[in-house]
Amino acid sequence: MRFLRRGERASTLDLLIAGLGNPGRQYERTRHNLGWLVVDELARRQGGSWRSKFSGMLSETRLGDLRLALLKPETYINESGRSVSAAMRFFKVEPESLLVVHDDVDLEAGRLQARRGGGLAGHNGLRSLVEQLGTQEFLRLRVGVGRPGRGDPRSVSDWVLSGFEPEDDVPALVSRAADAVETIVTESLDAAQARFN
Question: Among 18, 20, 114, 32, which residue's Cα sits nearest to residue 70?
Fold first, then answer.
């Protein structure tokens, strides 16, 4: 994917990357907060620091000569669109320059899928984004968390709000997801799909 350079449009950013999650200690290491964990890893790699903005936490960083903004909405997942749309208005970002990183129960645990557009798959964070933006045509990195196994009494909503299993290698998954984001940014969506989907 070729990002537009400054002067070709009004935005001062090449890409806005929003990781979905919930604020509060009780949600920190849950499946639903994988988006936050991935943007935290991206900020760590780029030496970015966080500040409060847009009802969330914002980190402005660079990857090579590309300007990125990382956003962790703190509105709770169901209201993610409020925070993301405020950041998009501020930076004058079009939907095609938005990448949303989120957990996905329809992908087996540990699987990644990079794509543009697609359905909501019952994800309330995506629903909020589409309501605010009026389009589904933004970039996504879906991070698979699977569903409760046979005999597991938890509902899907309890599953995503619970912590990972001891056998889940969360640091490796977060690192791979961050690698996929960097591939989208520096190479293309196609390259990320070939390597990570």
Answer: 18
HSE, side-chain direction, 13 A CA sphere, residue 142: 24
State pTM to two decimals.
Answer: 0.91
Q: In this structure, are residues 25 and 11 in contact, taking their beta carbons and an 8 Å threshold? A: no
**Contact call for residues 108 and 143 (beta carbons, < 8 A):** no
102 in catalytic set: no
Please provide the DSSP assignment of 17-57 as one string.
Answer: EEE----SGGGTTBGGGHHHHHHHHHHHHHT---EEETTEE
Report residue 33 as tokens.
């907060």
Q: Where are the beta strands (DSSP E) in 2-144?
A: 15-19, 51-53, 56-63, 66-73, 98-104, 112-116, 139-144
> Which residue is listed with tokens 């690192």?
175
Q: Summarize pLDDT for 130-189 with one digit per residue, the tens.
A: 999 999 999 999 999 998 888 889 888 899 999 998 888 999 999 999 999 999 999 999
Q: What angle do CA 37, 40, 44 make, to 5 degrees?
A: 140
Q: Are 101 and 181 in contact (CB under 8 A)?
A: yes
Yes or no: say if 159 and 31 are a contact pair by the CB < 8 Å rule.
yes
Active-site residue, from 14, 15, 20, 32: 32
